[in-house]
Each structure stands twice: as C-alpha cells, then as structure tokens.
C-alpha cells in the first residue's frame, strides 16, 4: 500500500508558503463567526494543522484529525512550538469515529479529493454523526476546472536549497495521479530521494450535493476560493448545516 504524506509531512507547509495561510484562515474565521458556528471545532484532514492552529489562536477550541501518522506528529510538534493545546487523533475521513461532538467541522485543502465518489456517502454520514444538531460542515475540494485544466498532464517543480519537489501528474477520467519525488538535503550535504504517489479524485459539484443531503445536511452555500464565485475557481467550498 502506498504511504502518502510520510517524508512530505515535514515539508508540507514550507513548500506551500505561497498559499497565504493567514488570509485563508481569516476567511474561515470570519465565515464561522457569521454563521454563529460555536467555539468547539475539528479540522478534518488537518495535515500539519495550519488551520487548527490559526483558529485556536483566534479563540476556538480546536481538535485535529488526519489519516497520516507523520502529519499528526508534525501537527503536534508545531502546536507545541506555539504553546497551543490542540488534541490530534488518527482517523479515516470515510469512516471517522470522533471522541466528541463538535459545533463545526472544517476540512480545507483537498481532504475529500482523496476519497473516490463511492466513499463520499459514508464520509458525509460520519461527519454528520460527529456534529451537534445545527453544526456546520465546511469543506473544500480542488475543482474539476483546476484538476483537469491546471494539474492533470503537467509537471510541477519547486527547487530550494534544502529540498526539491517534483510532481508528475497524469489525468484520468475521474482522477489525477501524482507521482511525487522529494530530494532532501542531509546533514552531510548529500541529497536523499523519497517517492510518494497521490491520487486526487475529481468531484463535480452536483455529485457532491446528493450525498450531502442524503447524510442530513442543508446546503447553505457553494463558493469558490476565499468566497469568490464558484465558476472558474480553483476550489469549491461547500458550506453545510446538519439538520
């Protein structure tokens, strides 16, 4: 079985330093306040916990969950470094069993692109079961426009002094397969190679709505990245409330 987000876990936020985490986090903070979402939240598919940390700094009582043990270790390290007390636990979004019920679940940055369409109904039911009645479920996916038009059948590269990232991306009808290679500088100056394969499934908006309503959610809005119009955006944000 392919193990994703192993070596990449240590470099994920560093290599994504161009995505403007502060503005992205503020988008969620303002939106959750506007929705009256409550103070107890879970970042599902938290990775190294960037959004959980940002919301904790803003006064929310946050937890984090992810499938990757290496990502969870990194999340715990970074939270401790900031003096934040955030509990993290390992779970699969498709069959999550959470230790408590939350006022909101936030799942940004592609968590549900890692699930094929057949697993979405069970994943959305699991999210609903982890929420209080009236709780907010807010997640995004990389849009079909982005995955088909910008990512599929391309090569991505990021070459830095201490790490080089390469991704060879192949487009299929329902997914993009990404063969990722990292070259990481060691203490002696030599570079060590690590390889991972990531599969991002393409989800059309209409294919997300039916399993969401079937899981007991009311769809409040669908919008693009940082609240932009959904059409032509790299991301689709689906903002839902548990009935």
CATH class of the largest domain: Alpha Beta
Uncertain spans: none
Strand order of the largest sheet: 3-2-1-4-5-11-10
Assembly annotation? single chain
CATH homologous superfamily label of the largest domain: Vaccinia Virus protein VP39
Strand count, sense and closure of the main sheet? 7 strands, mixed
Through-space gap between termini: 38 Å
Helix content: 25-40%
Question: How much is the radius of gyration in Å?
Answer: 18 Å
Query: How are helices and strands ordered from N to C?
Result: HHEHEHEEHEHEEEEHEE
> Can you name the CATH architecture of the largest domain?
3-Layer(aba) Sandwich
* Estimated share of beta-strand residues: 25-35%
CATH topology of the largest domain, anyone?
A: Rossmann fold
Count of individual helical segments:
7
Shape: globular
Counted up, domains total 2
Q: Give me the count of strands.
A: 11
User: Based on helices, strands and strand pairing, what is the structural class?
Assistant: alpha/beta
Mean pLDDT: 96
